[in-house]
Specification:
It is a single chain. The protein has a single domain, classed as Metallo-beta-lactamase, Chain A. With about 290 residues, it is an alpha/beta fold. Helix 6 crosses helix 7. The strands form 2 sheets. It has a 7-stranded mixed sheet. Strands 7-8-9-10-11-12-13 form a 7-stranded mixed sheet. It has 7 helices and 14 strands. Helix content is about 20%, strand content about 25%.
Length: about 290
């Protein structure tokens, strides 16, 4: 399998001179194997991905797994060019949100108050699939399972497996521990996140929410995002091979993210953990 990152930011896109190395697009990841692929989230990175797909493929079904419908995970969808191609069909997998159907949530993006093109022009090419109506899924030869994260109600993480390899995509997840005035400990992360630790167990790659550096987390407790220390402990307890930090705070510059990576690697060494750690960036490709 190959992982390609098209967007790695959280909250809002942040183009500019201080975000060149890690990029400014919001969440979008592509998993590829043997010419087939699935897409994870539809942040602003999906615009460039759509252009790439139209260059490489003449016609096909496209499978999009959405973690949740906060803006930074769906805001690129109206600019996804395959939507407007007669040769493509899009299947969107998501969950109902606060009483709205999957279709209603997405079609609202094309309300005339928000966008000049209405959803009617492509409704016959879009299929909306409610995740909780399914169990383990086989999508384009990938085995896909899911779990709810510690974020807004109905937010999901996905585990994708094929040919003995596994990737967990767990963005927008706040690892639970007694965070007020305390650093995360192995015991607290273990005792408060057992279901998620089981879910990520032995994954080759864990793409995990690391929105905040530990020193910035105190003012953001309860916002639904994790810090770099808790992510490192979590990856260690899950026995994952590689942790990819992801979904950075929009105020974080390239220099800040490089500092977070250095700090996280030092912390992992202090844990005597074998986990490898990198920061995901727009355009990054990893073969596993």
């Amino acid at each position: 399998m190959k992982i390609k990152f098209w967007g790695t930011r959280g909250s809002i896109p942040v183009p500019g001179s201080k975000t060149i190395q890690f990029g400014g697009n919001t969440s979008c990841v592509q998993i590829i194997s043997d010419g087939d692929f699935i897409i994870l989230d539809a942040g602003t990175g999906i615009r460039e991905l759509g252009n790439d797909l139209l260059q490489k493929y003449s016609c096909r079904d496209i499978h999009l797994l959405v973690t949740h419908t906060h803006w930074d995970h769906i805001q690129g969808l109206p600019f996804f060019r395959p939507l407007y191609s007669e040769k493509c069909k899009l299947k969107i997998y998501s969950e109902n949100k606060f009483g709205y159907s999957v279709a209603k949530v997405f079609e609202t993006q094309w309300d005339p108050n928000y966008f000049p093109v209405t959803a009617e022009i492509f409704n016959d090419k879009v299929e909306y699939i409610k995740i909780s109506d399914l169990e383990a899924m086989d999508i384009n030869g990938f085995k896909v399972t899911y779990i709810e994260t510690h974020h807004s109600a109905g937010t999901l993480a996905y585990r994708i497996e094929k040919d003995g390899k596994s990737v967990v995509y767990m963005t927008d997840n706040e690892l639970n521990y007694n965070a007020k005035n305390n650093l995360p400990t192995t015991d607290e992360i273990l005792n408060n996140n057992k279901d998620q630790i089981d879910f990520i167990q032995n994954a080759d790659v864990l793409i995990h929410d690391s929105m905040y550096q530990i020193e910035d987390y105190g003012d953001k407790i309860g916002w639904g995002h994790s810090n770099n220390y808790s992510s490192a402990i979590f990856a260690t307890l899950g026995n994952v091979k590689k942790l990819l930090l992801f979904h950075y705070d929009p105020d974080y510059t390239d220099d800040k993210i490089k500092n977070i990576v250095r700090e996280t690697k030092v912390f992992i060494d202090e844990l005597n953990s074998p986990v490898l750690c990198e920061a995901a960036y727009d355009g990054m490709e990893i073969d596993i």
